[in-house]
């Protein structure tokens, strides 16, 4: 239940309205309820009178359950739509974008936040790329009614209310939440920092049903990561261990080593090709990751050439060839491990990928140490 407040106190604490002709949207800060859900319309009703458009017929949908984002919307007229996005308040921003294809890049977005002085702010942005410099403030194709845009806030939630002048909004909606460690946008640039998390849904405005949109090229991304991890990051190290620790099983070790390395190279090459195709299809700044990948592939090609041009065992140059072959192989494995973890970081694949590969790598390292100790003891 919400405690009743005397009329005079309510008037004193009424939110203020800022109408800035071209650069700013009208904003309100209100203190009220502490929780929100689609089943708590009575609580939301206590705030609805502070919103500058009709809220009695809004549809409600929990659009992002992990971040507790709730969207209310309705068609207010022939070419007018009303939206209210509710989310937990934080030391950063919340955003809602209208995407042509479900991707964040290319979307026009509305972003709201509470500044350090407690004032509410709302801006529109064009998401032209994945770097802050490509996110352009006061740009995009959204026609927002500034005199009905409102920010409502209490101790736990922020409400971003706005109206769009459009026949029908795009059904592909993207949502984002900023990183609490980064301050929200501020004057004079209102630069938007990298988001902490994001999601995309496809909303059927008529039925009120939403479905999650799979990230663009997600299957290709997964194939790129899996092939490179299996090829360069697992099979190639196993093949190297066979060559170092199983030479007493002659000539079986040679055929096992050659077979494992060949399979690892084929999978790794396929992974690099998938990465190059992916780089051609998406707008991503992954130059370091790409450079490391090409370097690893070059090392792999050198190893294949070295295998084809290997001298006889009794040849005088065999010692130098062995040194070259093992050195290039170790460098390739080192760069591959670094690039796999770096790729997981870039893809924001989550802790499960880091943990999974980390466990496999830990098993390989432990096995290598045991085998190395046994080999030294035999010497």
Gyration radius, in Å: 29 Å
Beta-strand content estimate: 15-25%
Main β-sheet description:
7 strands, antiparallel
Give the name of the CATH architecture of the largest domain: Sandwich
Shape: elongated
Structural class: alpha+beta
* Terminal Cα span: 79 Å
* Oligomer designation: single chain
Our count of helices gives 7
Q: Catalogue the unreliable spans.
A: 1-34
Number of domains: 2
| Secondary structure: helix percent | 40-55%
Mean pLDDT: 86
| Largest beta sheet: strand ordering | 7-6-5-4-10-11-12
Q: Regarding CATH, which class of the largest domain?
A: Mainly Beta
Could you tell me the CATH topology label of the largest domain.
Immunoglobulin-like
Report the strand count.
12
| Secondary-structure element series | HHEEEEEEEEEEEEHHHHH
Summarize the structure.
By secondary structure, this protein is of the alpha+beta class.
Description:
- The chain is of the alpha+beta class.
- It has two domains: 7-212, Immunoglobulin-like (Sandwich), CATH 2.60.40; 218-378, Up-down Bundle (Four Helix Bundle (Hemerythrin (Met), subunit A)), CATH 1.20.120.1770.
- The protein has seven helices and twelve strands.
- Helix 4 runs antiparallel to helix 5.
- The radius of gyration is 29 Å and the shape is elongated.
- The model is unreliable at 1-34 (pLDDT under 50).
